[in-house]
Target: Peptidyl-prolyl cis-trans isomerase
Amino acid sequence: MRTLLIRAFLPLLTLLSGFWLTGCQQDGEALTDRKRRENEQEIQQYLTANKLQATQLGTTGLYYVKNISAPNNQTAGVGDEIQFFAKSSRLDGTVLDSTDGKNPIFYTYGTSPQRFNTLINNSYLYKNITNGMFLGLTVARTGENLTLLVPSYLDDGRVGSLVLPQYSPIRYDLRVKSIRTEDQQIEDYIAANKINVTKKLDNGIRIATTLARPDSALITPGQSVTVAYTGRLTDGTVFDNSRAKADTTFAFEVGRAQVVQGWELGIQQVRRGEKFFLIFPSALGYGTTGSGTVVTPFKPLAFEMAVLRVK
Model:
């Protein structure tokens, strides 16, 4: 009898469990929609209370105010480097994080915004930018000061905390220090290091010969070349140095695609025994993918080199 009762109730239990699961799924979807509406209401109330005339960025849900506008200044394109200062705060005015008195954030425009896990005591602003910040930078120009009001769903991946609940909107105040193309980064590096460029090619390669050997022949494809070198980013960061390795030199055959294009093309402009700077844009280096954690996408590269042997 007991077995029969259990069998009789099984279909009913299955049906009820299906309703329960469906109800949970709908509740989850309703929560997301409700939080979006609540964020929109909170942002609108904030704008009204603070008498801010904001512009909505398309259908993203983000609102921005240009406190200092520079309509004739440079905007960012893919691969450009943006330096900016940022402060994040709740809508009640509580400051969560700030770069005030610190170094600016460096961001290469066109690379993916990075998710973050915490705000406090992790200085995430130095390493990553959020989706909300990224969207704000799409309308920013050099020298501008912007206030962004960002709904929680644009800070994808946020983990709620006591200081910033998961579904709370957030305010970002951005001050754009500079926007530089790769070519501008290269020219600034050359000027800062007082490098005397002796040859500039149409593809963006710059060569500055510091020790000339005009009696030697130019290097050609098929030859094996041994060099010593130090590789730097245009902010001065050393990312590779043959002199710091057990084998202090590096050998490659020209024309065999064993090195990046910047080396392939640049080495054919110099001679055995010469010392020189070789500087080129990312398109001739590691391009849109980068290499490792230091050479990120769209980074122009600068090498200090010496040609030791040519065979």
Remarks:
- The chain has two domains: 35-180, 183-310.
